[in-house]
Amino acid sequence: MRKKQQTKKKNPKSSRIAFDSPRITEVLQMHPEGVEVERMTKIVEEFAAGFHFLHGYGLAETIFGSARANPRSSTYQEAYKLSFQLSKQGFAIITGGGPGIMEAANKGAYDAGGQSAGLNIMLPKGQQMNRYVKDSKAFYYFFIRKVMLAFASEVYIFFPGGFGTLDEMLELTTLVETKKIDPIPIVLVGKAYWQPLLNWFEETLYRKHNAIGKEDMEIHHLVDNAKEALALIQEMVRSNAYERKK
Q1: What is the rounded distance in angstroms from the CA atom of residue 43 to the CA atom of residue 190?
Q2: Residues 6 or more apart from 193 whose CB is under 8 A from it?
Q3: What is the distance between the alpha carbons of residues 213 and 174, in angstroms, rounded to a whole number?
Q4: Residue 131 gets which letter from DSSP?
Q5: pLDDT tens digits, residue range 20-65?
Q6: Is the dihedral of CA 106, 142, 70, 230 positive or negative?
Q7: In sequence order, what are the beta bridge partners of 139?
Q8: How many Å apart are CA 152 and CA 59, to the nearest integer?
Q9: Coil, helix or strand at residue 93
Q10: Which end of the chain, N or C, is surrounded by fewer C-beta atoms within 10 Å?
Q11: How far, CA to CA in Å, does 203 sit from each of 80, 207, 236?
Q12: For residue 150, which of 128, 192, 111, 178 has the smallest C-alpha distance?
């Protein structure tokens, strides 16, 4: 007696085309030349607008960190303290413009009466700009926004965060490592959060796999709180330890 052949039920989701938004449908109906021209025009225009927006800022620092940080959390409060003090010393405060650590940084600058900017991203469901941003620019392309954030400042400060924070930190690290930009201070705030990652860099990437150089271990500056970060940045300013990026 032949066994009844069993057939697997198809998952209806697996056969769906992922890129089925009206915008994608419109693009797919265009000739390749039209897609290329439209996309390149939009990219060039957005780059030009971004650089023009940042041109008005002199000495600046950019703060990254989790959008989920609660105002009652210690990381939020430390970001606020650091931004307040740096703003008092003449730094413009640049963030991604969203909630969490970004809000804390913009709020610090706002309360200190300093310059504050948010470089936001346009998302399908929108991304709310925090209320403490004094000046803002929204970007359609993630990669252009990342270039702007990497170009904006003389000091880059990273509080604990998720994938986006890690992405930005590693991109800046790579730019410094490959000498695509002049060495710039990359300050990591929060030893409990960042030390395990730095240990992995040293033990796994450097010692075990020889995937990075010994000098690359000096790219990051680890501190534990706003007070230590402020002291480090003040020392860098006094010693002219950084230059404007090319």
Answers
A1: 36
A2: 160
A3: 12
A4: T
A5: 556 556 655 666 665 578 888 889 999 999 999 988 888 899 999 9
A6: negative
A7: 121
A8: 9
A9: strand
A10: N
A11: 33, 5, 28
A12: 178
